[in-house]
């Protein structure tokens, strides 16, 4: 049975609205847009081609967006396997002075895709180290801090993130130290320095 075009668009809009207007070619296909129809909508300007197999409804350009809208694109690019992390996660949580020029993502060890515009870190994250956001996932404030300490990010950025996380009641000294110890010696050292600076 043929689907009404309005119903098809509404179905795709529902998917995209939970992803800040972004959607994949596979998601469009699933609701009823053939590859030929997808090309048509991209060529007509109804959809913006963001990356290979990733589109965005043009209407979302005129809507007020968040500073992290672009992170949804990378979640879709990774097929939902990437988690925003490190200094990018600190920025999402508005912690400290980190202002990353690059986007940092943590992916599973077996992840094969390459992204020239992102820095990939490979690790298995526990569920309690991840927060769900609209259209993407991000490491928790504690995980973001300790992974930055472990990656030897500028100590001032780690210090300011720790001070703000403690001030805002997002964590405690004990929780931070325990998490850093599990990650390793470099994470522990950077976290200890930040905690001393916060005294």
Largest sheet: 3 strands, antiparallel
Query: Strand arrangement, largest sheet?
Result: 1-3-2
Low-confidence stretches: none
> Given the helix and strand composition, which structural class is it?
alpha+beta
Number of separate strands: 8
The total number of structural domains is 2
Helical run tally = 9
What does the average pLDDT come to?
A: 91
Report the principal-axis shape.
elongated
What does this protein structure show overall?
The model has no long low-confidence stretch (mean pLDDT 91). The termini are far apart. Helix content is 47%, strand content 16%. It has helices at residues 5-17, 25-31, 35-44, 69-77, 86-92, 141-150, 155-167, 173-183, 185-197; strands spanning 22-24, 47-51, 54-57, 83-84, 103-107, 118-122, 130-133, 136-139. With 199 residues, the protein is of the alpha+beta class. The chain has two domains: 5-61; 69-197, no CATH class. The strands form three sheets. A three-stranded antiparallel beta sheet has the order 1-3-2, sandwiched between helices. A three-stranded mixed beta sheet has the order 4-5-6.
């Amino acid at each position: 049975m043929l689907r009404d075009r309005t119903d098809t668009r509404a179905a795709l809009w529902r998917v995209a609205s939970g992803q800040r207007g972004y959607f994949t070619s596979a998601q469009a296909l699933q609701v009823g847009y053939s590859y030929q129809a997808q090309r048509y909508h991209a060529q007509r300007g109804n959809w913006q081609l963001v990356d290979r197999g990733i589109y965005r409804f043009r209407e979302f350009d005129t809507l007020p967006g968040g500073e992290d809208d672009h992170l949804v694109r990378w979640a879709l690019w990774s097929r939902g396997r990437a988690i925003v992390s490190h200094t990018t996660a600190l920025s999402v949580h508005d912690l400290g002075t980190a202002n990353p020029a690059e986007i940092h993502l943590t992916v599973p060890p077996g992840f094969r895709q390459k992204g020239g515009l992102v820095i990939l870190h490979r690790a298995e994250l526990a569920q309690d180290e991840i927060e769900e956001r609209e259209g993407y996932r991000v490491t928790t404030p504690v995980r973001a801090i300790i992974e930055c300490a472990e990656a030897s990010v500028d100590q001032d950025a780690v210090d300011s993130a720790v001070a703000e996380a403690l001030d805002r009641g997002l964590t405690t000294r004990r929780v931070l130290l325990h998490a850093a110890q599990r990650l390793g010696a470099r994470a522990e050292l950077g976290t200890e320095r930040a905690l001393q600076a916060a005294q």
